[in-house]
Specification:
112 residues, mainly beta, 6 strands, globular
Length: 112
C-alpha cells in the first residue's frame, strides 16, 4: 500500500510556464508564489513561499496555453524528491510538486 502523498497549493504564476514537447510527451515547469498573512505585534505580516511545479501530458499543455505571469492557480498533486550529485560530487536534493490537476482563477486581464 502506498503512503499518502498529496498537496494542494494556491498562488500566482511567477512567470510564463516553460513548455517542452519531446517525442510526443508534453512537459511543463513553472513556479508559483503563495502568500501567507499573519498577525504580528502591531500589524499584519506577509510571508511569501515559492514552489516549483512540474506537469505532464494534457495538464502541461493546458497550463502552457492558459498560464501567464500573475495568473492565479490552484495546484493539486504530490510531492517528489529529486536527488543528484553536484559538480563537486556532493549530493543535492530538492522537493517539487508534480501536478495532477490545475485550476485557473478567472483571467481578468484585458486581451488575454
Amino acid at each position: 500500500m502506498n503512503n499518502l502523498n498529496s498537496i494542494l497549493v494556491e498562488g500566482t504564476l511567477v512567470e510564463k510556464p516553460a513548455f517542452q514537447d519531446t517525442r510526443g510527451k508534453s512537459f511543463c515547469t513553472f513556479t508559483i508564489a503563495s502568500n501567507r498573512f499573519y498577525k504580528k505585534h502591531k500589524g499584519i505580516e506577509k510571508e511569501v513561499s515559492h514552489f516549483e511545479v512540474e506537469a505532464f501530458g494534457k495538464v502541461a499543455e493546458n497550463t502552457h496555453n492558459l498560464g501567464h505571469e500573475g495568473r492565479g492557480v490552484r495546484v493539486v498533486g504530490r510531492l517528489q524528491q529529486k536527488k543528484w550529485n553536484d559538480s563537486k560530487g556532493k549530493e543535492q536534493s530538492k522537493i517539487v510538486i508534480v501536478a495532477e490537476h490545475i485550476e485557473f482563477r478567472p483571467d481578468l486581464e484585458v486581451g488575454k
